[in-house]
Amino acid sequence: MKRTIITISREYGSGGRLVGERVAEQLGIPFYNHNLIDMVAQETGMAADYISNWEEQVASPRLWGVPAMTGFGGSLFDGYYYSNEDRMFAAQSKIILNIAEEGSAVIVGRCADYLLRDNPDTIRVFVFAEEKQRIERIWKTYGAPSREEAVKYLRAVDKGRAAYVRKYADRDWGDMRNYHLILDSGRFGVDGAAAIIVLAAESRS
Amino acid sequence: MKRTIITISREYGSGGRLVGERVAEQLGIPFYNHNLIDMVAQETGMAADYISNWEEQVASPRLWGVPAMTGFGGSLFDGYYYSNEDRMFAAQSKIILNIAEEGSAVIVGRCADYLLRDNPDTIRVFVFAEEKQRIERIWKTYGAPSREEAVKYLRAVDKGRAAYVRKYADRDWGDMRNYHLILDSGRFGVDGAAAIIVLAAESRS
Questions:
Q1: Are B68 and B84 in contact (CB under 8 A)?
Q2: Which of A177, A183, A195 is closest, CB to CB, to B181?
Q3: What pLDDT score was predicted for residue A107?
Q4: Strand A181-184 relative to strand B181-184: parallel, antiparallel, unpaired?
Q5: Best exposed site among A49, A127, B12, B18 by fewest CB in 10 Å?
């Protein structure tokens, strides 16, 4: 298989992360999820290092989706304050772009699909599932204290993801046009979904 | 493979019909597209036959998505007139339900995904592609007289399909939640897309 980056965007509780892990195992390629990327950014102190390299890009309207500093001597917003989240995102983004340069990989979340939108070796996948099944997984598998709490988590996490994507990618997270392959993990199971994605990675034009 | 009905909904110019044909070939199962179903309905005179059997169901609010005859002695709409399109749809629907009883099949369009929504042996697929590629196919392959005409056809046919689905299934044609698998035929090619769908049909839980 030629170099392929598979980005997995997923609804909370759909098992998207598990699917991503299986895909990476079957293809024998590295697997990166948001936890891993967060850790690397924090523990290596990369966040601080990259800020100095990233000032201009961080200020880019395209990256943030909002008008910000122009980058031409003197900013529109003197004393503009970047949140820790913004700094983390900038560091992660650099890490993700580096990962894509190194070879094949599976990357879960973190707007990787958006960051790699112009990378021709990318397959953008979205994993979803019926709400009933997601609640079940969040409750029984992820360990939410009760079904009611599972429902709350589901709404909160998905809402957070949509907002994150809107903020950093200025996109509609659930818009199918942002992806190449969208699948219902409940219909195919985690293993079935992984097998389909593996074939898709090998089938690209 | 156990009995599987694969319904293919598709954007005009995405090559969905071709993809469906390849899937049927590879699985060795019958392939039905809307032309075939239309022909059967018209040529066998089934439309007329089925109307008499279908009066009550045709009047069912659930089938049409609009309040209609109650079916209890005397209708709300005396002299209610069914269009030829409605009669044809009723006849096609019966044909599609019969097809699903007979064994595996690939069915393109005709709200088959909606008609078979409670059929557990169904895989609902949506095929789309970037507009640029669709215009190219409609112009170069389907034979539109010019690129400008191809664009017009694309808009008109997709608009018509969305309206048809809204009328008969009371659904949003492009809503990913109505499907199990959604894929970009441009990314994978017609053969690649067909291979993915074949695997999906064999992978269902």
A1: no
A2: A183
A3: 97
A4: antiparallel
A5: A49
Count of structural domains, chain A: 1
Nearest CA in chain B to A202: B192
Task: Report CB contact under 8 Å: A174, B179.
Answer: no
pLDDT digits 0-9 by tens, B167-184: 889 888 889 999 999 999
Chain centre distance of CA A205 = 24
- The answer, yes or no, to whether ipTM is higher than 0.85 is no
Distance between CA atoms of B15 and A31, rounded to whole angstroms? 33
pLDDT in tens, B49-97: 665 554 444 443 344 433 333 333 323 333 444 677 777 788 888 899 9
Residues from chain A contacting residue B205 (CB–CB below 8 Å)? 186-189, 192
Give contacts of B181 with chain A, Cβ < 8 Å: 181-184, 187-188, 196
Coil, helix or strand at residue B184:
strand
Residue B176: what residue type?
Answer: M
- B 72-131 residues with CB < 8 A to A: 123, 126, 128
Q: Residue B32: what are its φ and ψ, rounded to 5°? A: -125, 125
**For residue B184, which residues of chain A lie inside 8 Å, CB to CB?**
179-181
pLDDT of A35 reads 80
Q: What is the CATH number of the domain that holds A141?
A: 3.40.50.300
* Interface residue B179 vs chain A (CB under 8 A): yes
Domain range spanning residue B113?
5-202
CA distance B2 to chain A (A): 14
Going from the first residue of chain A to its last (205 residues), give the mean pLDDT of each consecutive group of 10, the final group possibly shorter. 93 95 97 84 69 47 37 35 74 90 94 94 97 95 94 92 88 90 96 97 84
Give the span between the Cα atoms of B19 and B22, in whole angstroms: 5
